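Is this the right way to post structure tokens for a design question? Let me know if I should format differently. Anyway, here goes:
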């Protein structure tokens, strides 16, 4: 099975946007049309419940079958730091703000979610998709964090390593599952 992760359209926010439900800028219709042509029409599609992901999926869906949006595919929850800039988080708690990005794992923002929490949540959703769908291709419209969790998971890379990947808005990252937990990454941050 090929898992095609589509990062939603840009929000243009300069803050930590996790569960904050901002809209996506979907004005790049040329890229959206190319994405729609790139994904097989037989693909099953799913998105996170956040508007920026579901609207992005709607923009490329065409006649493909769609599954109900899944809240477990949402971005990491930044808790009290939602919609705050990194500099604001640094002012509140410099060590925690720095550790969140330099030592990902169990560290979480106040009332938020850790990298390990995000990974468990998204991996559970992806496992369900793999087990419950019998198709060759799945298009998953989601977010930067969830895509990184699956790159780390399927390549056995550390969170710190995958934080080095660039995942642009409206890019495709494709992972092919090979059974028995094996997989290969076919493309990362592919821009059409």
């Amino acid at each position: 099975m090929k898992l095609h992760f589509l990062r939603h359209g840009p929000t243009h926010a300069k803050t930590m946007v996790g569960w904050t439900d901002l809209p996506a800028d979907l004005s790049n219709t040329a890229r959206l049309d190319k994405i729609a042509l790139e994904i097989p029409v037989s693909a099953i599609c799913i998105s996170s419940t956040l508007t920026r992901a579901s609207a992005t999926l709607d923009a490329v869906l065409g006649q493909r079958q769609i599954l109900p949006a899944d809240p477990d595919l949402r971005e990491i929850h930044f808790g009290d730091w939602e919609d705050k800039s990194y500099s604001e988080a640094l002012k509140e708690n410099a060590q925690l703000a720095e550790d969140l990005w330099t030592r990902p794992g169990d560290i979480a923002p106040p009332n938020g979610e850790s990298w390990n929490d995000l990974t468990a949540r998204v991996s559970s959703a992806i496992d369900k998709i793999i087990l419950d769908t019998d198709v060759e291709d799945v298009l998953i419209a989601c977010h930067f964090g969830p895509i990184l969790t699956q790159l780390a998971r399927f390549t056995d890379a550390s969170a710190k390593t995958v934080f080095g990947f660039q995942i642009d808005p409206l890019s495709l990252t494709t992972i092919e599952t090979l059974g028995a937990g094996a997989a290969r990454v076919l493309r990362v941050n592919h821009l059409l």
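Format looks fine. Someone answered above. Worth noting: The chain has a mean pLDDT of 96. Strands lie at 2-7, 44-47, 65-66, 137-142, 172-179, 182-190.
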